[in-house]
């Protein structure tokens, strides 16, 4: 008697353990509801149209437990279908091909559909997607579809918040902007690498809710369209890798919400966009205190204008950009000196002014940049001594590139205090005297490149602590 109850207790314990294990291993997907039969059939029809991938889990009774399927835990309706190819697209054969069966239009509650990185062999984006009235997220990037003549099918997607059609050929799709700009809820739009060459806003275009716009890697050759300046709620604008030309207009409203501005690798000319920390000459001449009218608080974080033909001076008024972390203006034609007002950029982590025609001494207000990680100002005409305060003021500095300038005098011993420094390039200057012996104190340089590849911090600042010798502080990501 005693023995059997002991065994019963053991069995219960065993079962509990199994349940525990299985629930923790599938905790995300553990369906609390049973899926709806008509929706299950719709998924099966969809599966029949697919080739190159077997979707092994798609045969159990409860389709809410199928890979990539998520149901409403009360009604059982399918809400999300995430069939993004899990592999890099170079692994041929691991992606879906075939057709996108219109049976999916049965899933009336669907709000999330991701078919990215599959290979549907150049079919048209299926127009029935326009009949999914609750769709909020539609992700088709590099899914191997093309836009065809028209996106008219999308006009009724009034709940759509995010649309990603990057890598789909929209070169024949003349109404892409007309249709997309009318979507009343759209917040995020990715149309990178879509073979687009014309951007023509209709007068009635709205984009009232758009916050993030990515049009990189297309073939636009026009001026920056005036209508873009009207998108005053934009937080991110990325027009990199096109051939947009001409100047950027002065429009302070345009910058009032912008956090990240990427215009690199275009054909922009003229002075730097007014609104990035500067007043026009006219405004300066009529104002007694040149910058004090700009007391608005701006949110700009990242400015990447590299690889254009911007000319003129480095902006003089930086008081309003306390959040600015990254400035990249390399490969332009900037002239003049760096104004001492840059001392207000107290959050700056990365400055790249490589390959311009800037001159003069580095202003001592730069000492305020105590979070600086990278300074690349090679290929200019900067002069004077290398400031001794660099050694004290930049405890996190990892990369200091001053090559091909006109710095003179001795290399200051204070540079040896830069214990995080991994790259130091002082070549092609007019420096004299010996290389300081204390350079062998720069121990961070001995960290093998493969443990701390520098490209990672160029891109995101997401590098591990082991890369920062002697520094226990956590590094924030930009
Ligand atoms: C349904 O799931 C969501 C998130 O998965 C959860 O927040 C919510 O409380 C659940 N509702 C019910 C009724 O279980
Ligand atoms: C664009 O249209 C032309 C002519 O109809 C056609 O030959 C071409 O395949 C189409 N390209 C795409 C990407 O739709
Ligand atoms: C959009 O919805 C309206 C009203 O339901 C309908 O008449 C129209 O055909 C739909 N348009 C498209 C392109 O599906
Ligand atoms: C753009 O798409 C083409 C063809 O789909 C691809 O070969 C190319 O690598 C893509 N370019 C970028 C920058 O992603
Ligand atoms: C916007 O204007 C175009 C062309 O004039 C027209 O076809 C379209 O119906 C208009 N859209 C709205 C929402 O008014
Ligand atoms: C920008 O908005 C203003 C006011 O809302 C409007 O008058 C003007 O036509 C718009 N400009 C463009 C280019 O859309
Ligand atoms: C800025 O743009 C250049 C050129 O497109 C690119 O190489 C670089 O990674 C960008 N930097 C940042 C921080 O976005
Ligand atoms: C850039 O613009 C200039 C004229 O301003 C033009 O001569 C040149 O061809 C353009 N470059 C590219 C790559 O489009
Ligand atoms: C800017 O300064 C003026 C004058 O000092 C003041 O009236 C105004 O409220 C300030 N604006 C902001 C946004 O702080
Ligand atoms: C410097 O920038 C110009 C564009 O202003 C570019 O044409 C040139 O190739 C760049 N030189 C180097 C060495 O990067
Ligand atoms: C340095 O930053 C402080 C705020 O942290 C600011 O008050 C001061 O004016 C700045 N110094 C210079 C020279 O800009
Ligand atoms: C270099 O390191 C040695 C030993 O750690 C120390 O005594 C010396 O002060 C350091 N020199 C400089 C310039 O930091």
TrEMBL record:
Q: Where is the signal peptide?
A: 1-24
Provide the membrane topology annotation: Single-pass type I membrane protein
Query: What family is it from?
Result: Belongs to the RLP family.
Organism name: Kingdonia uniflora
A Pfam family of the record is: LRR_8
Provide the Leucine-rich repeat-containing N-terminal plant-type domain boundaries: 37-72
**Which SUPFAM superfamilies does the UniProt entry name for this protein?**
L domain-like
GO CC annotations, alphabetized: plasma membrane
Q: What is this protein called?
A: Leucine-rich repeat-containing N-terminal plant-type domain-containing protein
Q: Subcellular localization, per the record? A: Cell membrane
**Superkingdom of the source species:** Eukaryota
Q: Which UniProt keywords apply?
A: Cell membrane, Glycoprotein, Leucine-rich repeat, Membrane, Repeat, Signal, Transmembrane, Transmembrane helix
**Main localisation:** membrane
């Amino acid at each position: 008697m005693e023995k059997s109850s002991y065994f019963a207790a053991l069995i219960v314990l065993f079962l509990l353990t199994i349940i525990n294990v299985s629930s923790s291993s599938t905790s995300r997907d553990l369906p609390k509801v049973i899926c709806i039969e008509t929706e299950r059939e719709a998924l099966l029809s969809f599966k029949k149209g697919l080739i190159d991938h077997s979707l092994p889990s798609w045969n159990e009774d409860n389709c809410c437990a199928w890979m990539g399927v998520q149901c409403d835990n009360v009604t059982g309706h399918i809400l999300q279908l995430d069939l993004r190819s899990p592999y890099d697209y170079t692994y041929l054969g691991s992606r879906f091909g075939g057709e996108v069966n219109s049976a999916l239009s049965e899933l009336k509650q669907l709000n999330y559909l991701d078919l990215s990185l599959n290979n549907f062999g150049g079919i048209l984006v299926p127009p029935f997607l326009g009949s999914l009235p609750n769709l909020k997220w539609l992700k088709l990037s590099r899914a191997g579809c093309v836009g065809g003549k028209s996106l008219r099918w999308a006009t009724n997607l009034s709940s759509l918040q995010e649309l990603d059609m990057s890598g789909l050929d929209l070169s024949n799709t003349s109404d892409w902007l007309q249709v997309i700009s009318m979507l009343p809820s759209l917040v995020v739009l990715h149309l990178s690498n879509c073979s687009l060459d014309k951007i023509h806003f209709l007068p009635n275009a709205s984009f009232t809710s758009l916050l993030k716009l990515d049009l990189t890697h297309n073939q636009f050759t026009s001026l920056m369209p005036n209508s873009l300046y009207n998108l005053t709620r934009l937080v991110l604008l990325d027009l990199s890798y096109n051939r947009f030309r001409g100047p950027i207009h002065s429009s302070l409203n345009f910058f009032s919400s912008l956090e990240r501005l990427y215009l690199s690798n275009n054909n922009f000319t003229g002075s730097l966009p007014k609104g990035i920390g500067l007043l026009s000459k006219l405004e300066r001449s009529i104002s007694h205190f040149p910058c004090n009218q700009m007391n608005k608080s701006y949110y700009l974080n990242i400015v990447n204008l590299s690889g254009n033909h911007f000319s003129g001076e480095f902006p003089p008024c930086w008081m309003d950009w306390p959040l600015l972390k990254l400035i990249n203006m390399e490969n332009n034609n900037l002239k003049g000196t760096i104004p001492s007002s840059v001392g207000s950029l107290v959050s700056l982590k990365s400055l790249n002014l490589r390959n311009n025609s800037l001159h003069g001494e580095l202003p001592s207000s730069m000492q305020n940049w105590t979070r600086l990680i990278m300074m690349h100002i090679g290929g200019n005409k900067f002069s004077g001594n290398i400031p001794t305060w660099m050694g004290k003021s930049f405890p996190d500095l990892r990369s200091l590139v001053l090559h091909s300038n006109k710095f003179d005098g001795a290399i200051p011993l204070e540079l040896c205090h830069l214990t995080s420094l991994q790259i130091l390039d002082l070549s092609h200057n007019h420096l004299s005297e010996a290389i300081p012996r204390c350079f062998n104190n720069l121990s961070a340089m001995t960290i093998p490149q493969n443990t701390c590849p520098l490209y990672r911090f160029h891109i995101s600042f997401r590098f591990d602590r082991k890369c920062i010798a002697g520094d226990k502080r956590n590094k924030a990501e930009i």
